[in-house]
Design brief:
The protein folds into 3 domains: 98 residues, OB fold (Dihydrolipoamide Acetyltransferase, E2P) (Beta Barrel), CATH 2.40.50.140; 262 residues, Bira Bifunctional Protein, Domain 2 (BirA Bifunctional Protein, domain 2, 2-Layer Sandwich); 126 residues, Gyrase A, domain 2. It has an 8-stranded mixed beta sheet, sandwiched between helices. It has a 5-stranded mixed β-barrel with strand order 1-2-3-5-4. The chain is globular, with a radius of gyration of 30 Å. By secondary structure, the chain is of the alpha+beta class. The mean pLDDT is 92. Helix 5 packs across helix 7. The structure holds one RNA strand.
RNA sequence: GGGGGCGUAGUUCAGCCUGGUUAGAACGCCUGCCUGUCGAGCAGGAGGUCGCGAGUUCGAAUCUCGUCGCUCCCGCCA
């Protein structure tokens, strides 16, 4: 029943046919999207990458009729025929090629298809489980919606390469089989056959290599770098992802910001056909935490956190007073018009706050008669007026408050803010608010191990004014560290790097790496610093996340052709899988059961 | 590592709380009819290890325990 392609050559893409093509002889190839059989008259929607065209079988030819009888969804056809205008009233305005159709003169069935497990349509996105979509990824990718996403990805990658090349960046590849470094994320590890008992690691990022390229004098480097991290996954985290890895010599933070801003403007202009504002907002980490309770605030809406500690201390509410007296803070957010919230809605928000370790979520409503409900009885008269003034309360507002350690108060209320943004639909598709967050602490205290860890990585430069505190007060040292945030999603992280051995050794000492260990593990880097390493810095925007945010998507899995599940598996190819004893033996490995 | 949700026909789901006929619906699929459909229409039909295992019970899709898979969140992710 199947035909060979023979000498047939495709003349047009399905969706490209227009009225101008009337009476042209064309040869289309594609998949049967849908079949409408009227007995003597059969319509097929033929689909290729470009889209859909209607072909009509209105033939006496017994050979064609016999073939058509067997044609089903997703059969692969080659169709020779003549374009003709559709009769009046039969045109389809929904379809780009809807003014015309192709009357079939010859037909070849290039391949048959089983009935697909789900229809090759856009509704699949919301209606078919990810499990099935993953297992039949090649069918999921056949859907127009997914093809558009892959094309979007291609367009953006191309725009990035064009722009960075024109700015003098060189794309240079770095190894995938590298040395394992214990700190940071867990490494994916590859056993060595030639050096038994030794392992390569897959890169979490090309960090050290790009720094070495700066030492080597390449000045501006970029790479579409695959990065692998063996950590637990999320909707916006895959075991392997792609970063637009960049590094520059002789630059300040501001210059790196400017390059990334220009890059994004170029992307917006060339791929999305939009203009993006000149330079992005910039907040310090401390200010972001203080005002939004997160280091990646969504700037599309307000609902800022306000510090109410002094006022709360003056109230008659002992729960608040004691928190403030013991060094904690009280923070509040005003939710305009939310006085209509039910008790249940408020309890849901409280549960969320408790999820982030808050002990409770205090609330008051603003009515014509003043503050009411919740904890309002503790805020009679002066404290109540002070709060109304500090929060700029208006009738109909809801005030939500958390009293706790500064960290918990900010983070828990920040989570409430973020939930409210979604719940009250304060964001609009197509609205992009980019934001730089910088001056992160260089170190954070690790309670479990009772030691300081690098917040970003070991190679970030301290802010110059804090360098003297490296040994005396590491917690107070800020780093020349920065994140790029858009709409509440962290899109990039970067830093100015350390380029001097003395400073690098001091930073390593803070996290407990002495000179001997530093030499053993990072000797190649320190050695490179001895040969005239230039000041340098860089940044690495996550490509998959960037695509998701720009496209208004909800999972980076939709922007990766072959992603993995949250457990790091691929139901399609069945990875990871055991390897046979022969392979294990060659590698000198033995599997120990439980 | 911890917590939540889901798992029933090819697909998406209902049924489960309160155990008891032959486990339903929609779409899809198959057969027939049909010359202007575009989610074609009409008539008929097939299709189920109720994720898997154990337990309770006269009787389990339904209750209990375990387990596997997908997913969301916390931890983790420099």
């Amino acid at each position: 029943m199947l035909d060979n392609l023979g000498d047939w050559k495709r003349s047009d893409a399905c969706a490209d046919l227009r009225q101008d093509d009337d009476n042209r002889e064309v040869l289309l190839m594609g998949w049967v999207h849908r079949r409408r059989d009227h007995g003597g008259l059969v319509f097929l929607n033929l689909r290729d990458r470009s889209g859909i065209c209607q072909v009509v079988i209105d033939s006496e030819d017994a050979c064609i009729l016999e073939k058509v009888k067997h044609i089903r969804s997703e059969f692969v056809l080659a169709v020779k025929g003549r374009v003709r205008l559709r009769p009046d009233g039969m045109r389809n305005a929904e379809m780009p090629s809807g003014d015309v159709e192709v009357l079939v003169e010859e037909l070849r069935i290039l391949n048959a298809s089983k009935t697909p497990p789900f229809p090759i349509e856009s509704v699949v996105q919301d209606e078919v489980s990810d499990e099935i979509r993953f297992k039949y990824r090649y069918l999921d990718l056949r859907r127009h919606e997914m093809q558009e996403r892959m094309i979007f990805r291609h367009d953006i990658v191309r725009a990035i390469r064009d722009f960075l090349s024109s700015e003098g960046f060189l794309e240079i590849e770095t190894p995938l089989l590298i040395r394992s470094t214990p700190e940071g994320a867990r490494d994916y590890v590859v056993p060595s056959r030639l050096q038994q008992g030794c392992f390569y690691a897959l890169p979490q990022s090309p960090q050290l290599y790009k720094q070495l390229l700066m030492v080597a004098g390449y000045e501006k480097y970029f790479q579409m770098a695959r990065c692998m991290r063996d950590e637990d996954l999320r909707g916006d985290r895959q075991p392997e992802h792609t970063q637009i890895d960049m590094e520059m010599s002789f630059v300040s933070e501001e210059e790196i910001f400017a390059v990334v801003e220009s890059l994004l403007q170029h992307i917006f202009k060339t791929v999305m056909g939009q203009d993006l504002p000149g330079s992005f907002l910039c907040l310090s980490y401390a200010e972001a935490m203080d005002r939004f309770g997160t280091d990646k605030p969504d700037m599309r809406f307000g609902l800022e956190l306000v510090d109410l500690s002094e006022i709360a201390a003056a109230s008659t509410f002992n729960a608040f007073k004691s928190v403030v007296e013991s060094g904690g803070r009280v923070k509040g957010i005003r939710v305009p018009g939310a006085a209509t919230f039910s008790r249940k809605q408020i309890t849901e928000l409280e549960d969320l706050a408790k999820h982030f370790k808050a002990k409770g979520l205090a609330w008051m409503k603003v009515t014509e008669e003043g503050l009411s409900g919740g904890v309002s009885k503790f805020f009679a008269d002066a404290p109540g007026e002070a709060i109304a003034q500090a929060m700029e309360l208006e009738v109909g507002d809801l005030l939500l408050m958390v009293a706790d350690t500064p960290q918990v108060a900010a983070v828990s209320l920040g989570a409430v803010r973020s939930r409210l943004g979604a719940q009250l639909k304060l964001t609009e598709p197509g609205d992009f608010r980019f934001l730089w967050v910088h001056r992160f602490p260089l170190f954070e205290w690790n309670e479990d191990h009772q030691r300081w860890d690098a917040m970003h990585h070991l190679f970030s430069m301290p802010c110059l004014e804090d360098i003297d505190k490296l040994e005396s007060d590491p917690g107070q040292v800020h780093g020349q560290l920065y994140d790029l945030v858009c709409n509440g999603v962290e899109l990039a992280s970067g830093s100015i790097r350390i380029h001097r051995r003395d400073i690098q050794e001091r930073v390593m000492a803070v996290v407990g790496i002495d000179k001997a260990e530093a030499e053993e593990r990072f000797g190649f880097l320190l050695g490179a610093f001895d040969f005239g390493a230039p000041p340098h810095g860089g940044i690495a925007p996550g490509l998959d996340r960037l695509l998701m945010v720009l496209d208004g998507g909800s999972s980076i899995r939709d922007y990766i052709a072959f992603p993995k599940t949250l457990k790091g598996t691929s139901p399609m190819v069945g990875s990871p899988s055991p390897i046979d004893d022969e392979q294990l033996k060659e590698l000198g490995l033995e599997i120990r059961g439980e």
